[in-house]
């Protein structure tokens, strides 16, 4: 299974690292897609520098057909920049339209909202973006660690990462096996 991870500067390190590690531990290959070449700057709690991640590919050059699933980590700055980038929004919109699984945590659903991909969906997120998601037509749940609505898997934030990682691996594998088998 090949998983695209869409992220840019300001990504919350733990929200990229832990799901990516869980996916790789389950045998998936992951690629970081971003807005620019080189490395992206990670953060801890949005404020503290937390190292870098090498970029594997520009989202502008990526195709939905290249991936079985998509991961959208959070951090406040990361999705705020992604939702302002035409190529990133198009990629997310196309991915949701494909029916392939998409997982998003914390502020990550901001990009989904910009892609008009949350209307009529049940999901969760970081508390500060829930009004934005409701305004975009989502049914927002506040009291669940993980919400699965068809192809979409969402979680509230770093405290939910154990449940989120388990759900992501399970849902991505289930979708991959149903396509492969």
UniProtKB/TrEMBL annotation:
Q: Does the keyword Amino-acid biosynthesis apply?
A: no
Q: Which PROSITE patterns match?
A: PEPTIDASE_C56_PFPI
- List the residue ranges forming a coiled coil, or say none: none
Q: Which SUPFAM superfamilies has this protein been placed in?
A: Class I glutamine amidotransferase-like
Pfam families from the entry?
DJ-1_PfpI (PF01965)
UniProt cross-references to Gene3D superfamilies, sorted A to Z:
3.40.50.880
InterPro entries associated with the record = C56_PfpI-like, Class_I_gatase-like, DJ-1/PfpI
Which UniProt key words apply to this protein? Glutamine amidotransferase
Domain annotation DJ-1/PfpI: ranges: 1-171
- PANTHER family registered for this protein in UniProt: DJ-1 PROTEIN, PROTEINASE
The UniProt similarity line reads: Belongs to the peptidase C56 family.
Name the record gives this protein = Type 1 glutamine amidotransferase domain-containing protein
What species was this sequence derived from? Answer: Streptomyces levis
């Amino acid at each position: 299974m090949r998983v695209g991870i869409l992220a840019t500067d300001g990504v919350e390190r733990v929200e990229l690292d832990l799901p990516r590690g869980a996916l790789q531990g389950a045998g998936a290959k992951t690629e970081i897609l971003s807005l620019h070449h080189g490395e992206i700057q990670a953060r801890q709690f949005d404020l503290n520098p937390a190292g870098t991640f090498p970029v594997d590919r520009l989202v502008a050059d990526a195709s939905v057909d290249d991936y079985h699933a998509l991961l959208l980590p959070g951090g406040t700055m990361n999705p705020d920049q992604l939702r302002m980038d035409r190529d990133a929004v198009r990629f997310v919109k196309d991915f949701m339209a494909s029916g392939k699984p998409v997982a998003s945590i914390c502020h990550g659903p901001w990009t989904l909202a910009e892609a008009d991909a949350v209307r009529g969906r049940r999901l969760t997120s970081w508390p500060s973006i829930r009004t934005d998601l409701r305004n975009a037509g989502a049914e927002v749940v506040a009291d669940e660690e993980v919400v699965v609505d068809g192809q979409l898997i969402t979680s509230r934030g770093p405290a939910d990462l154990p449940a989120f990682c388990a759900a992501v691996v399970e849902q991505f594998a289930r979708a991959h096996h149903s396509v492969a088998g």
